[in-house]
Amino acid sequence: MNFRNYAIALSIIAALVLQIMPMPASVDPFRPDWVFLVLAYWTLALPNRVNVGVAFINGLLLDILLGTALGVHSFAMCSCIFVLAANYQRLRNYSVWQQSVIVGLLAALYHLIVFWLQYLLTDVNFLFSYLWPVFTSMALWPWIFSLLRKVRRQLRIT
């Protein structure tokens, strides 16, 4: 089996599993946006293979797995990945720490779009705890970046 052809798909599947994996109630509000982080890396690294279409499909999968209204996560994911895909040449030149701040801002945008759509559909109230995943995603970006870059280089994925 040639993992080179399936590495991107396997990393996205692993992110989907991590996104729905049960966690203790005290830690769950801090769960990073695994799918967004993995899609952000692959969009910056290979924008011709992972782009808004892949984000749309994974957003729909997140909607199904998390039980939200169909299209909520999909729209939010597409919006953020579009920003990354449109500016990937500029963002590649930033250091990992600068990219971490940008990923944090986009994760905040992602959560605010999800909240806004859920507010329109179900009338939920905003809590600051909705934004904890932004900080954990920002903190994890350098490690996700390093891990996926190592995978991409070892498997020579282009």
From TrEMBL:
<keyword id="KW-0472">Membrane</keyword>
<feature type="transmembrane region" description="Helical">
    <location>
        <begin position="64"/>
        <end position="88"/>
    </location>
</feature>
<feature type="transmembrane region" description="Helical">
    <location>
        <begin position="100"/>
        <end position="121"/>
    </location>
</feature>
<feature type="transmembrane region" description="Helical">
    <location>
        <begin position="127"/>
        <end position="148"/>
    </location>
</feature>
<keyword id="KW-0133">Cell shape</keyword>
<comment type="function">
    <text>Involved in formation of the rod shape of the cell. May also contribute to regulation of formation of penicillin-binding proteins.</text>
</comment>
<dbReference type="InterPro" id="IPR007227">
    <property type="entry name" value="Cell_shape_determining_MreD"/>
</dbReference>
<dbReference type="Pfam" id="PF04093">
    <property type="entry name" value="MreD"/>
</dbReference>
<protein>
    <recommendedName>
        <fullName>Rod shape-determining protein MreD</fullName>
    </recommendedName>
</protein>
<keyword id="KW-0812">Transmembrane</keyword>
<dbReference type="InterPro" id="IPR026034">
    <property type="entry name" value="MreD_proteobac"/>
</dbReference>
<keyword id="KW-1003">Cell membrane</keyword>
<keyword id="KW-0997">Cell inner membrane</keyword>
<keyword id="KW-1133">Transmembrane helix</keyword>
<comment type="similarity">
    <text>Belongs to the MreD family.</text>
</comment>
